[in-house]
Amino acid sequence: MAETKELPLMEKIVALCKRRGFIYPSSEIYGGINGFWDYGPLGAELKRNVKELWWNTMTRLRDDVVGLDATIIMHPQIWKASGHVDTFSDPMVDCKTCKGRFRADQLDEIPCPQKPSKTVAQCPGEKTPPRAFNLMFQTWVGPVQDESALAYLRPETAQAIFAQFKNVLETSRQKVPFGIAQIGKAFRNEVTPRNYTFRSREFEQMELEYFIRPDEAVEAICGRVAAVEELLARGPLGEPQPDWGWQAWHKYWVEERIRFYESIGLPRETLVEYWQKPEELAHYARATVDILFKFPFGKRNERGELIGEELEGIAARSDFDLSQHERYSGKPMRVFDEELRAAWAKLDPARQQALWQRYFEHRKNYLTRTARPGETPEQIERAAREDADAFAKGHYIPHVIEPSAGVDRLVLALICNAYAEDQMPDEKGNLETRVVLRFHPRIAPIKAAVLPLVRNKPELVRKAIEIRDTLRPHLTVFYDDAGAIGRRYRRQDEAGTPFCITVDFDTLGEKGPELKDTVTVRYRDDGRQERLRIDALLPWLLERIR
Fold first, then answer.
1. How many Å apart are CA 79 and CA 89, to the nearest integer?
2. Helix, strand, or coil here: 348?
3. How far apart are CA 72 and CA 288, in angstroms?
4. Could you tell me the pTM of the whole model?
């Protein structure tokens, strides 16, 4: 008899996602379309849970963050100002042998045609020289397809936040420091989408732009900028303080994001906090931390160990974005800070001059890096001087800390982390292998399944439906009466349902009045069961899924 071949973990996960309705290939009946995926019934619920938990954590549980829901298509000048039109590209090569098209920097990660779960060490065949390929999808607004109607599907959600910054500031009655959060679709015409849903051409982002005072303003107001090393020596960062500069805020948001991942079931040991090296940073970034998850695929170190792929980046973006939109739109992005104006007047002249000079140098460096053709050093210096003079009167362009996470990557990480195989006895007591998704109850697509022991006893079915209808306004419930009870348990294990509620003959009081109006609750992770009264069921469940 031929030996059964063990499937790689990622292939098992992909098969489960298709079989149980988490993720389907888009347009599958027509052969699919590379880089696009659809979420089935369970996947849609899982994805919605992730987004709602992020939104609640970021906005509803905080006083200093408000929300935005902006359009996918925006004025094309937004992408000119952000740098996407000129620089948002990947190096692309064509293989003259196989006629394939690849990213030049990922030739060592190309799936092997014979074994898609593995990658080949190098892609054989002669290559064309690398050339830049802009990742933005183009479209046209209006009936005529010419240069004047050219637009883009947004490659990120962040720029809409920057473009609407002043409107949100004025209408929400916030003041710096504060944040604007958004969840939405983004589109990138990836050269080689890969690793299932990890790198797709259509995806969703959860982004926060948190606006803070420049360090010079913090120092003027508080007399100092708190040193991060000093803060961390006292223990974990607590509530934000007025003397925090950009480094403290950056570290704060890194910790906040890791705590969020822990709260939805990703243990800290599955995450890697990767601080980008100076040569890896974007030109506008002072620091960037990538939170990596140890997927079953991705980059490996010299020992062959998986080192993780990016779930989220937390970047300290300085004042680059708002400055760019101010320059390109001609609309002011400065804010007026009354505390700064009042504090400035109390500083001695030497301190004023030192802070003025630092702010002037910062603005001059920015203007020099982003100088337009024809701008002279004299013009740049004059503009920087005007900015520094305005700063001395209480005006500045806020700096930004940006936690940016991918919804689809997080959903995939949660599925990979939850996937497990173990041994559990069947209805006859024989051990069998089961597949189970051990989701944290907060993000599980179905919180509880209601199962009548048999479907041919009307009283049982009525009672089960009554319980389902009682629970349904408060949590996601699934009703199933098809097949043996053990098989139904297994289906819910694969769906990641943390609790199964079995309505049996004891519920009807057929074996004695002491068990009447009770049900059996089965735990997903270990299969143990306990008896609960029906009237205690809802609070019991709510306590365990929140």
1. 13
2. coil
3. 26
4. 0.90
